[in-house]
């Protein structure tokens, strides 16, 4: 379960990073590591391949850089939806209507 959740979270991060800047696999792996994910290029490639197969990202060759990954319009829609779900979860986790708090009053 934890692994699946981290995989979903990594997808959201990668889509967000792709909005900010076209990135290589190495750049995306480095960005994920900065956020505490234990990944390397070998674990990021399958994630990128899955995102491409789902139509959320595309890759292009750039002179002097190599292959970079870009978010598609479909990926932007998925990111908006994912952000909405994350925002809802955050609100629920931080709401004052925690039943355990009410029983102490």
Automatic annotation (TrEMBL):
InterPro entries reported for this sequence: WH-like_DNA-bd_sf, WH_DNA-bd_sf
Name of the protein described by the UniProt record: Uncharacterized protein
Organism: Cupriavidus basilensis
Lineage: Bacteria, Pseudomonadati, Pseudomonadota, Betaproteobacteria, Burkholderiales
